[in-house]
Amino acid sequence: MATNKVEIGFDLSGLPDAEFAKLDDAFYGILDAPQTILGGAIYQDVTPYVVQYSTGRGKSRQLDRYQAGKLDVTLDNNSRIFDPLFGSSPYRGQIIPKRSVRVTSNDVIQVEAVIDDWDLSYEPSGNSYAIIKSSDAFAQFANQLLSGGTATAQYTGERMQAILQNSGVQWPLTRLDLETGQQYLQADVIDEGTNALSYLNKISESEPGELFVSKTGDVKFLDRWAESAGTPIVFADDGTGIPYQNLSVVYGAELLYNQIVVSVEGGGTATANDSASQETYGIQNLTRSNLPLDNDTSAQNLATYLVSQYGEPEYRFEALEIEIIDLADATQSSILDLELGDFVQVKFTPNNVPPQIDRYAEVIRIAQRVTETSHKVTLGLGSTDGEFWRLSDLVFGRLGNELGY
Q1: What are the CA-CA distances from residue 329 to residues 43, 101, 117, 333 (Å)?
Q2: Pick from 358, 354, 357: which is nearest to 395 by CA?
Q3: Which pLDDT score, from 0 to 100, does residue 42 have?
Q4: For residues 326 and 319, what is the distance between their CA atoms, to the nearest angstrom?
Q5: Is the link from the previous residue into 16 a cis peptide, with omega within 30 of 0?
Q6: DSSP letters along 312-346, please?
Q7: Which pLDDT score, from 0 to 100, does residue 382 have?
Q8: Confidence tier at 38 by pLDDT (50, 70, 90)
Q9: Are strands 269-273 and 259-264 parallel, antiparallel or unpaired?
Q10: In a 3-state reduction of DSSP, which class is residue 45?
Q11: What angle do CA 82, 85, 91 make, to 5 degrees?
Protein backbone atom coordinates (compact mmCIF):
# COMPACT_ATOMS: atom_id res chain seq x y z
CA MET A 1 0.00 0.00 0.00
CA ALA A 2 1.17 3.54 -0.68
CA THR A 3 2.63 5.42 2.28
CA ASN A 4 -0.13 7.92 3.08
CA LYS A 5 0.06 10.83 5.48
CA VAL A 6 -2.58 13.30 6.66
CA GLU A 7 -1.44 16.53 8.31
CA ILE A 8 -3.31 19.48 9.80
CA GLY A 9 -1.86 22.95 10.32
CA PHE A 10 -2.31 23.63 14.04
CA ASP A 11 -0.93 26.69 15.82
CA LEU A 12 0.15 25.30 19.18
CA SER A 13 2.48 28.13 20.13
CA GLY A 14 0.07 29.49 22.74
CA LEU A 15 -0.05 26.28 24.79
CA PRO A 16 2.08 26.23 27.95
CA ASP A 17 3.78 22.94 27.04
CA ALA A 18 4.39 23.88 23.38
CA GLU A 19 7.87 23.16 22.05
CA PHE A 20 8.47 26.54 20.43
CA ALA A 21 11.09 29.23 20.85
CA LYS A 22 11.22 30.63 24.37
CA LEU A 23 13.17 33.73 25.32
CA ASP A 24 16.11 33.02 27.69
CA ASP A 25 15.38 29.27 27.67
CA ALA A 26 18.54 27.13 27.78
CA PHE A 27 17.18 24.74 25.13
CA TYR A 28 14.41 26.54 23.21
CA GLY A 29 16.11 29.93 23.32
CA ILE A 30 19.15 29.08 21.17
CA LEU A 31 19.09 31.06 17.92
CA ASP A 32 19.12 29.07 14.65
CA ALA A 33 18.85 25.73 16.50
CA PRO A 34 16.51 23.09 14.99
CA GLN A 35 14.33 23.08 18.09
CA THR A 36 13.94 26.88 18.07
CA ILE A 37 10.73 27.14 16.08
CA LEU A 38 8.81 30.39 15.95
CA GLY A 39 5.07 30.40 16.51
CA GLY A 40 2.39 29.94 13.88
CA ALA A 41 0.56 27.08 12.24
CA ILE A 42 2.76 24.04 11.65
CA TYR A 43 1.61 20.81 10.04
CA GLN A 44 0.98 18.08 12.62
CA ASP A 45 0.83 14.43 11.55
CA VAL A 46 -2.57 12.93 12.48
CA THR A 47 -2.21 9.80 10.32
CA PRO A 48 -2.48 7.34 13.27
CA TYR A 49 -6.06 8.54 13.81
CA VAL A 50 -7.16 8.33 10.16
CA VAL A 51 -9.92 5.80 9.45
CA GLN A 52 -10.41 6.76 5.80
CA TYR A 53 -10.25 9.73 3.49
CA SER A 54 -11.44 10.74 0.04
CA THR A 55 -10.36 13.46 -2.36
CA GLY A 56 -11.89 14.91 -5.49
CA ARG A 57 -10.49 17.56 -7.82
CA GLY A 58 -11.41 18.60 -11.37
CA LYS A 59 -14.51 18.66 -13.55
CA SER A 60 -16.86 16.17 -15.20
CA ARG A 61 -16.65 17.33 -18.83
CA GLN A 62 -14.18 19.34 -20.88
CA LEU A 63 -16.43 22.37 -21.39
CA ASP A 64 -17.33 22.54 -17.69
CA ARG A 65 -15.56 24.88 -15.32
CA TYR A 66 -13.21 23.34 -12.77
CA GLN A 67 -14.86 23.04 -9.37
CA ALA A 68 -13.40 23.53 -5.90
CA GLY A 69 -11.36 20.51 -4.86
CA LYS A 70 -12.64 18.54 -1.88
CA LEU A 71 -10.98 16.51 0.89
CA ASP A 72 -12.95 14.56 3.50
CA VAL A 73 -11.08 12.82 6.33
CA THR A 74 -12.61 10.56 8.98
CA LEU A 75 -10.60 10.50 12.23
CA ASP A 76 -10.90 8.16 15.22
CA ASN A 77 -12.12 10.38 18.06
CA ASN A 78 -12.67 7.84 20.82
CA SER A 79 -10.16 9.69 22.99
CA ARG A 80 -11.89 13.04 22.24
CA ILE A 81 -8.58 14.35 20.91
CA PHE A 82 -10.48 16.18 18.11
CA ASP A 83 -13.32 17.40 20.33
CA PRO A 84 -13.25 21.25 20.44
CA LEU A 85 -14.69 21.17 24.00
CA PHE A 86 -12.13 18.71 25.40
CA GLY A 87 -9.63 20.71 27.46
CA SER A 88 -7.06 17.90 27.68
CA SER A 89 -6.57 17.57 23.93
CA PRO A 90 -3.03 18.37 22.74
CA TYR A 91 -4.77 20.35 19.99
CA ARG A 92 -7.11 22.28 22.31
CA GLY A 93 -8.15 25.62 20.89
CA GLN A 94 -7.23 24.49 17.37
CA ILE A 95 -10.18 22.28 16.43
CA ILE A 96 -11.59 25.16 14.38
CA PRO A 97 -12.40 25.86 10.72
CA LYS A 98 -9.95 27.47 8.27
CA ARG A 99 -6.96 25.39 9.29
CA SER A 100 -4.91 23.94 6.43
CA VAL A 101 -4.97 20.19 5.80
CA ARG A 102 -3.00 18.14 3.31
CA VAL A 103 -2.60 14.55 2.17
CA THR A 104 0.69 13.06 1.00
CA SER A 105 1.11 9.67 -0.73
CA ASN A 106 4.58 8.23 -1.34
CA ASP A 107 5.99 11.66 -0.43
CA VAL A 108 3.90 13.36 -3.15
CA ILE A 109 1.29 15.90 -2.05
CA GLN A 110 -2.12 14.82 -3.37
CA VAL A 111 -4.25 17.70 -2.14
CA GLU A 112 -3.88 20.76 0.05
CA ALA A 113 -7.07 22.36 1.30
CA VAL A 114 -8.66 24.43 4.07
CA ILE A 115 -11.02 22.96 6.64
CA ASP A 116 -14.61 24.16 6.32
CA ASP A 117 -16.27 22.00 8.99
CA TRP A 118 -15.55 19.59 11.83
CA ASP A 119 -18.43 17.10 12.04
CA LEU A 120 -18.49 14.97 15.21
CA SER A 121 -20.19 11.57 15.11
CA TYR A 122 -21.04 9.50 18.18
CA GLU A 123 -22.30 5.96 17.52
CA PRO A 124 -24.37 3.87 19.98
CA SER A 125 -21.57 1.29 19.93
CA GLY A 126 -19.31 3.82 21.61
CA ASN A 127 -17.15 4.64 18.60
CA SER A 128 -16.69 8.33 17.92
CA TYR A 129 -15.41 10.02 14.79
CA ALA A 130 -14.39 13.50 13.73
CA ILE A 131 -15.05 14.12 10.04
CA ILE A 132 -13.11 16.92 8.39
CA LYS A 133 -14.80 18.62 5.42
CA SER A 134 -12.39 20.80 3.47
CA SER A 135 -12.03 22.55 0.13
CA ASP A 136 -9.34 24.31 -1.90
CA ALA A 137 -8.91 27.99 -2.82
CA PHE A 138 -11.74 28.01 -5.39
CA ALA A 139 -14.23 27.87 -2.51
CA GLN A 140 -12.56 30.99 -1.11
CA PHE A 141 -12.63 32.83 -4.46
CA ALA A 142 -16.33 32.00 -4.85
CA ASN A 143 -17.00 34.11 -1.75
CA GLN A 144 -14.76 37.06 -2.58
CA LEU A 145 -15.75 40.30 -4.32
CA LEU A 146 -13.41 42.39 -6.46
CA SER A 147 -12.67 46.06 -5.98
CA GLY A 148 -13.89 47.94 -9.04
CA GLY A 149 -11.71 49.62 -11.64
CA THR A 150 -10.49 49.55 -15.22
CA ALA A 151 -8.27 46.63 -16.14
CA THR A 152 -5.15 47.00 -18.27
CA ALA A 153 -5.23 45.44 -21.76
CA GLN A 154 -3.16 42.27 -21.31
CA TYR A 155 -2.95 38.53 -21.95
CA THR A 156 -5.19 36.07 -20.10
CA GLY A 157 -2.57 34.83 -17.63
CA GLU A 158 -1.49 38.39 -16.85
CA ARG A 159 -5.12 39.37 -16.20
CA MET A 160 -5.55 36.42 -13.84
CA GLN A 161 -2.55 37.52 -11.83
CA ALA A 162 -3.95 41.05 -11.62
CA ILE A 163 -7.31 39.71 -10.42
CA LEU A 164 -5.68 37.46 -7.83
CA GLN A 165 -3.74 40.48 -6.55
CA ASN A 166 -6.92 42.61 -6.37
CA SER A 167 -7.53 44.03 -2.89
CA GLY A 168 -10.66 41.90 -2.64
CA VAL A 169 -8.64 38.67 -3.06
CA GLN A 170 -4.96 39.26 -2.13
CA TRP A 171 -3.77 35.79 -3.13
CA PRO A 172 0.01 35.31 -2.49
CA LEU A 173 2.27 35.68 -5.52
CA THR A 174 4.24 32.67 -4.29
CA ARG A 175 1.14 30.48 -4.80
CA LEU A 176 0.70 31.25 -8.51
CA ASP A 177 1.62 29.03 -11.46
CA LEU A 178 0.18 30.91 -14.46
CA GLU A 179 1.10 30.68 -18.12
CA THR A 180 1.02 34.06 -19.88
CA GLY A 181 -1.70 32.98 -22.30
CA GLN A 182 -2.23 33.30 -26.05
CA GLN A 183 -5.33 35.50 -26.03
CA TYR A 184 -5.18 39.29 -25.60
CA LEU A 185 -7.93 40.92 -23.53
CA GLN A 186 -9.45 44.38 -23.62
CA ALA A 187 -9.07 46.96 -20.85
CA ASP A 188 -12.59 46.35 -19.57
CA VAL A 189 -14.23 47.98 -16.57
CA ILE A 190 -14.60 45.69 -13.57
CA ASP A 191 -17.66 46.59 -11.54
CA GLU A 192 -17.32 46.93 -7.78
CA GLY A 193 -18.45 43.69 -6.13
CA THR A 194 -17.81 41.42 -9.14
CA ASN A 195 -17.46 37.82 -7.98
CA ALA A 196 -13.78 36.85 -8.16
CA LEU A 197 -14.23 33.23 -9.29
CA SER A 198 -16.81 34.09 -11.93
CA TYR A 199 -14.49 36.67 -13.47
CA LEU A 200 -11.50 34.30 -13.38
CA ASN A 201 -13.57 31.66 -15.18
CA LYS A 202 -14.60 34.19 -17.81
CA ILE A 203 -10.92 34.91 -18.48
CA SER A 204 -10.21 31.18 -18.81
CA GLU A 205 -13.09 30.75 -21.27
CA SER A 206 -11.69 33.62 -23.34
CA GLU A 207 -8.44 31.71 -23.91
CA PRO A 208 -9.83 28.94 -23.80
CA GLY A 209 -7.61 27.37 -21.14
CA GLU A 210 -7.53 25.33 -17.96
CA LEU A 211 -7.80 27.12 -14.59
CA PHE A 212 -7.66 25.06 -11.40
CA VAL A 213 -5.99 24.72 -8.01
CA SER A 214 -3.07 22.32 -8.15
CA LYS A 215 -2.53 19.46 -5.73
CA THR A 216 -0.06 21.65 -3.81
CA GLY A 217 -2.63 24.41 -3.39
CA ASP A 218 -1.26 26.78 -6.05
CA VAL A 219 -3.54 28.50 -8.57
CA LYS A 220 -2.57 27.05 -11.96
CA PHE A 221 -3.45 28.20 -15.47
CA LEU A 222 -2.68 26.33 -18.70
CA ASP A 223 -3.27 28.21 -21.96
CA ARG A 224 -4.61 26.63 -25.14
CA TRP A 225 -1.09 25.81 -26.33
CA ALA A 226 -0.09 23.92 -23.17
CA GLU A 227 2.29 21.07 -24.01
CA SER A 228 2.09 17.49 -22.79
CA ALA A 229 4.60 16.74 -20.04
CA GLY A 230 6.93 14.13 -21.55
CA THR A 231 5.95 10.54 -22.29
CA PRO A 232 2.42 9.83 -20.99
CA ILE A 233 1.90 6.77 -18.81
CA VAL A 234 0.01 3.91 -20.42
CA PHE A 235 -3.05 2.13 -19.02
CA ALA A 236 -3.87 -1.13 -20.78
CA ASP A 237 -6.01 -4.24 -20.42
CA ASP A 238 -3.59 -6.48 -22.34
CA GLY A 239 -0.51 -6.41 -20.11
CA THR A 240 1.32 -3.68 -22.07
CA GLY A 241 0.61 -0.98 -19.48
CA ILE A 242 -0.75 -0.34 -15.99
CA PRO A 243 -3.82 -2.52 -15.37
CA TYR A 244 -7.14 -0.88 -14.50
CA GLN A 245 -10.36 -2.26 -13.00
CA ASN A 246 -13.10 -0.19 -14.62
CA LEU A 247 -13.38 1.99 -17.71
CA SER A 248 -16.37 4.19 -18.55
CA VAL A 249 -17.02 5.01 -22.21
CA VAL A 250 -19.43 7.68 -23.48
CA TYR A 251 -20.80 8.20 -26.96
CA GLY A 252 -23.56 10.76 -27.02
CA ALA A 253 -24.64 14.38 -27.17
CA GLU A 254 -23.15 15.59 -23.86
CA LEU A 255 -20.50 17.54 -25.78
CA LEU A 256 -22.34 18.04 -29.09
CA TYR A 257 -22.57 21.74 -30.00
CA ASN A 258 -22.99 22.71 -33.65
CA GLN A 259 -23.91 26.36 -33.12
CA ILE A 260 -21.53 28.52 -31.11
CA VAL A 261 -22.34 32.12 -30.12
CA VAL A 262 -19.63 34.29 -28.56
CA SER A 263 -20.27 37.88 -27.49
CA VAL A 264 -17.63 40.45 -26.56
CA GLU A 265 -17.95 42.71 -23.51
CA GLY A 266 -19.00 46.04 -24.96
CA GLY A 267 -18.62 44.69 -28.50
CA GLY A 268 -20.24 42.48 -31.10
CA THR A 269 -21.43 38.91 -31.34
CA ALA A 270 -19.88 36.13 -33.42
CA THR A 271 -21.63 32.96 -34.54
CA ALA A 272 -20.25 29.75 -36.03
CA ASN A 273 -22.42 26.93 -37.40
CA ASP A 274 -21.78 23.37 -38.53
CA SER A 275 -24.63 23.02 -41.01
CA ALA A 276 -23.99 19.33 -41.73
CA SER A 277 -24.15 18.51 -38.03
CA GLN A 278 -27.28 20.62 -37.58
CA GLU A 279 -28.99 18.76 -40.42
CA THR A 280 -28.22 15.42 -38.78
CA TYR A 281 -28.69 16.18 -35.08
CA GLY A 282 -30.65 19.42 -34.96
CA ILE A 283 -29.29 22.69 -33.63
CA GLN A 284 -27.32 22.30 -30.41
CA ASN A 285 -26.30 25.74 -29.09
CA LEU A 286 -23.44 26.79 -26.82
CA THR A 287 -23.21 30.47 -25.87
CA ARG A 288 -20.31 32.30 -24.25
CA SER A 289 -21.49 35.76 -23.19
CA ASN A 290 -19.67 39.02 -22.49
CA LEU A 291 -16.13 37.71 -22.68
CA PRO A 292 -13.44 40.41 -22.25
CA LEU A 293 -11.87 39.62 -25.65
CA ASP A 294 -9.86 42.34 -27.41
CA ASN A 295 -12.05 42.48 -30.54
CA ASP A 296 -14.78 40.81 -32.58
CA THR A 297 -12.26 38.90 -34.69
CA SER A 298 -11.07 37.06 -31.59
CA ALA A 299 -14.68 36.18 -30.83
CA GLN A 300 -15.14 34.75 -34.32
CA ASN A 301 -11.92 32.74 -34.01
CA LEU A 302 -13.08 31.27 -30.72
CA ALA A 303 -16.53 30.39 -32.08
CA THR A 304 -15.00 28.76 -35.16
CA TYR A 305 -12.60 26.72 -33.02
CA LEU A 306 -15.33 25.51 -30.63
CA VAL A 307 -17.70 24.43 -33.40
CA SER A 308 -14.87 22.54 -35.13
CA GLN A 309 -14.11 20.67 -31.92
CA TYR A 310 -17.63 19.94 -30.68
CA GLY A 311 -19.72 19.82 -33.86
CA GLU A 312 -19.89 16.01 -33.91
CA PRO A 313 -20.61 13.45 -31.18
CA GLU A 314 -17.56 11.59 -30.03
CA TYR A 315 -16.73 8.16 -28.66
CA ARG A 316 -14.58 9.01 -25.66
CA PHE A 317 -13.14 7.45 -22.55
CA GLU A 318 -14.85 9.16 -19.60
CA ALA A 319 -13.28 7.65 -16.47
CA LEU A 320 -10.70 5.08 -15.46
CA GLU A 321 -10.50 3.37 -12.05
CA ILE A 322 -7.29 1.86 -10.70
CA GLU A 323 -6.75 -0.05 -7.45
CA ILE A 324 -3.14 0.79 -6.68
CA ILE A 325 -2.69 -1.18 -3.46
CA ASP A 326 -0.94 -4.17 -5.10
CA LEU A 327 1.05 -2.24 -7.70
CA ALA A 328 4.81 -1.76 -7.50
CA ASP A 329 6.02 1.36 -5.71
CA ALA A 330 7.31 2.97 -8.92
CA THR A 331 3.98 2.31 -10.67
CA GLN A 332 2.03 3.72 -7.73
CA SER A 333 4.17 6.84 -7.78
CA SER A 334 3.66 7.37 -11.52
CA ILE A 335 -0.10 7.40 -10.93
CA LEU A 336 0.12 9.56 -7.81
CA ASP A 337 2.32 12.04 -9.71
CA LEU A 338 -0.49 12.77 -12.18
CA GLU A 339 -1.93 16.28 -12.16
CA LEU A 340 -4.98 17.85 -13.80
CA GLY A 341 -4.12 18.76 -17.38
CA ASP A 342 -1.71 15.83 -17.79
CA PHE A 343 -2.17 13.30 -20.59
CA VAL A 344 -2.35 9.52 -20.49
CA GLN A 345 -2.63 6.75 -23.07
CA VAL A 346 -5.45 4.20 -22.73
CA LYS A 347 -5.63 0.83 -24.51
CA PHE A 348 -8.96 -0.99 -24.44
CA THR A 349 -10.23 -4.13 -26.15
CA PRO A 350 -13.97 -4.46 -25.39
CA ASN A 351 -14.73 -7.99 -24.20
CA ASN A 352 -11.34 -9.04 -25.61
CA VAL A 353 -12.76 -8.74 -29.13
CA PRO A 354 -10.26 -7.03 -31.49
CA PRO A 355 -9.45 -4.50 -32.76
CA GLN A 356 -8.01 -2.67 -29.77
CA ILE A 357 -8.95 0.97 -29.15
CA ASP A 358 -5.80 3.00 -28.42
CA ARG A 359 -6.20 6.70 -27.58
CA TYR A 360 -4.67 9.56 -25.68
CA ALA A 361 -6.77 11.36 -23.08
CA GLU A 362 -6.47 14.43 -20.87
CA VAL A 363 -6.84 14.05 -17.11
CA ILE A 364 -9.64 16.44 -16.09
CA ARG A 365 -10.59 14.89 -12.73
CA ILE A 366 -8.67 13.02 -10.03
CA ALA A 367 -10.44 11.31 -7.13
CA GLN A 368 -9.08 8.99 -4.46
CA ARG A 369 -10.72 6.87 -1.79
CA VAL A 370 -8.43 5.36 0.83
CA THR A 371 -9.29 2.90 3.60
CA GLU A 372 -7.19 0.45 5.60
CA THR A 373 -7.45 -2.15 2.83
CA SER A 374 -7.94 -0.18 -0.38
CA HIS A 375 -6.57 2.80 -2.31
CA LYS A 376 -8.64 3.52 -5.41
CA VAL A 377 -7.72 6.26 -7.86
CA THR A 378 -10.31 7.43 -10.39
CA LEU A 379 -9.21 9.52 -13.35
CA GLY A 380 -11.82 11.55 -15.21
CA LEU A 381 -10.78 11.81 -18.85
CA GLY A 382 -11.28 14.28 -21.67
CA SER A 383 -10.70 13.81 -25.38
CA THR A 384 -7.58 15.07 -27.13
CA ASP A 385 -9.27 15.22 -30.53
CA GLY A 386 -9.20 18.81 -31.73
CA GLU A 387 -6.16 19.71 -29.65
CA PHE A 388 -3.69 21.99 -31.42
CA TRP A 389 -0.60 20.67 -33.17
CA ARG A 390 2.68 21.31 -31.30
CA LEU A 391 6.07 20.86 -32.89
CA SER A 392 7.99 17.86 -31.47
CA ASP A 393 5.32 17.20 -28.83
CA LEU A 394 5.06 13.47 -28.04
CA VAL A 395 1.25 13.59 -27.93
CA PHE A 396 0.32 16.48 -30.23
CA GLY A 397 3.20 16.52 -32.70
CA ARG A 398 1.34 14.14 -34.99
CA LEU A 399 -0.38 14.79 -38.28
CA GLY A 400 -4.09 15.09 -37.71
CA ASN A 401 -4.03 17.59 -34.87
CA GLU A 402 -5.47 20.99 -35.70
CA LEU A 403 -3.38 24.08 -36.34
CA GLY A 404 -3.99 26.70 -33.68
CA TYR A 405 -5.17 30.29 -33.75
Answers
A1: 25, 25, 34, 6
A2: 358
A3: 87
A4: 21
A5: no
A6: S-EEEEEEEEEE-TTS-HHHHHHHHT--TT-EEEE
A7: 93
A8: low
A9: antiparallel
A10: strand
A11: 45
